[in-house]
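Here is one chain, start to finish.
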Amino acid sequence: MGSPQDLSPPKLFAQNDPARWMRRCLELASLAAGQTAPNPMVGCVVLNAGIVVGEGFHPGAGQPHAEVFALAQAGDRARGATLYVNLEPCNHTGRTPPCTEAVIRAGLSRVVVGMVDPDPRVSGSGIERLRQAGIEVEVGVEEAACQRLNEAFVQRVTHQRPLGLLKYAMTLDGKIAATSGHSAWVTGPVARAAVHQLRATCDAVVVGGNTVRRDNPRLTSHGYSAHNPLRVVMSRRLDLPAQANLWQTKDAPTVVFTASEADPERQQLLTALGVEVTVLPALTPRLVTEQLYQRGCAAVLWECGGLLAAEAIKDGVIDKLWAFVAPKLVGGANAPGPVGDLGIQQMDQALALDRITWRTLGNDLLLEAYLRFSESA
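Its structure:
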């Protein structure tokens, strides 16, 4: 990825359109999707008399924030200008100095903020600092879109765990594979490309041992982005193949979480291949999620089979679904479904979904929705 300063030259626009400039901030922020955790995705635009004089985005933790890049590009043209940013400027010293002080020093007259930072170290103090310095501050422009962009960051800060996203692809009769276990391919190329793009926005992708044995996945973004997520395997006994695409750690790092009953010889083999093996006191989705939180992950994608998917849901670590439905029928009483036993005996006990959207991808349908119970998890 190029420097955030390698952006388009200044252009003249109508300046009285805050929503337009906030959407531009979101576009800029999205350029670093999947690469900023545990930090948020932030984009910034500096506008002076209708001219864009500076743009920038935050490329990753430990690097300068979006405001710093945009102000550096603007230089002296920032004086008296308006700065647009999708997240409240920070007012504390972390790996980098507070952005509020850079904004004040630049001599800006106005700052437009998309959303208040949920991080308690900031949460309104950045806005207050700017107002104390005599800068006019407007808050809440395109707020819903700003919240959606950084939903994983918000989840991590407010619930101290990553956003859990369960993805699966099933036939119209609810099967993720035929009775033989064969599952390539349930959906078409457009839907599969969407999954590759989704992986590029996530920090980790989780599968179980069965998925490794049956499908031998790569779990990369397949060239749709330079970013590949951390690949995570859950295997209690390490009864895994000696050769697998996931052991090719030059493509992307792989960690295997296991338990005390793990095969020590297979553990040594995986370690020799460059795979990290971590033994947990109990191999559960919640403990794995806690480990990924400690590693700085904000968005965790679960691409597992039905048994592990059910355990993750019951453990309360799934917040969102990406469910692909293909116009195919395979039948079979023993053909696997996307979610195993949840212990639900009556339909009125079914887990409800919120904020549901449908869209078509080629011949397939994609449902995106949120689990209601996760809001208090």
